[in-house]
Design a protein that fits this description.
This protein has five helices and eight strands. It is an alpha/beta fold.
Length: 188
């Protein structure tokens, strides 16, 4: 299974720390899966201009093609101005409307306050649903106080990360089996 970890923040470190923790746990549990970590902080991504995702070159083409080839995507996103970052919205704009069809998406959100725990529910999940993603219902919310000196210090957050990984792989595996059975029924 091809898995992409998308870290969409161009500033700060808390989202990166959180998503790297999930990646490490994931690779430990599923070493046979093909994994790619995309850190938008390290890439030069163009603004969407309506072209087909295959027409982009460089870092932009790399990111769009990796996401389109993935079976599982973990999105790590901070909360900026009570919203998702523009960098993440731009990634969605670079992709076709049904880009996430038959892909399972797990989410980890970071924020400085408990007041922002619903950003994933009211902003990110509707976009993912519109793009036809199979969204893991429970996501991981990480507050600034859960990370000290680039280390997660809250055991509950680590436990929720383990659950997110298990739930994401279970959902992706189940969907793949169902889709394979449906295709077999066609008999071509």
């Amino acid at each position: 299974m091809k898995t992409v970890f998308l870290q969409d923040s161009r500033v700060g470190s808390k989202t990166l720390v959180s998503l790297r923790e999930i990646e490490n746990k994931y690779q430990e549990k599923y070493p046979d899966h093909d994994t790619t970590f995309i850190d938008l902080k390290e890439l030069d991504i163009e603004f969407s201009d309506g072209r087909n995702y295959l027409d982009y070159e460089g870092d932009t083409g790399y990111v769009t093609k990796e996401l389109m080839a993935a079976d599982i995507i973990f999105i790590g996103s901070p909360t900026f101005q009570a919203s998702i970052p523009a960098t993440l919205k731009n990634i969605f704009d670079l992709l076709p409307q049904k880009a996430l069809e038959k892909k399972t998406v797990g989410i980890v959100m970071t924020a400085g306050s408990n007041k922002h725990f619903l950003i994933a529910e009211i902003q990110l999940k509707p976009i993912l649903g519109y793009m036809k993603a199979n969204i893991v219902p429970n996501y991981v919310f990480v507050k600034d106080t859960d990370i000290i000196q680039k280390e997660i210090v809250n055991d509950d957050v680590l436990f929720r990360m383990d659950n997110l990984i298990e739930n994401t792989v279970a959902l992706a595996t189940t969907y793949q089996k169902v889709w394979a059975d449906i295709e077999e029924d066609y008999g071509f």
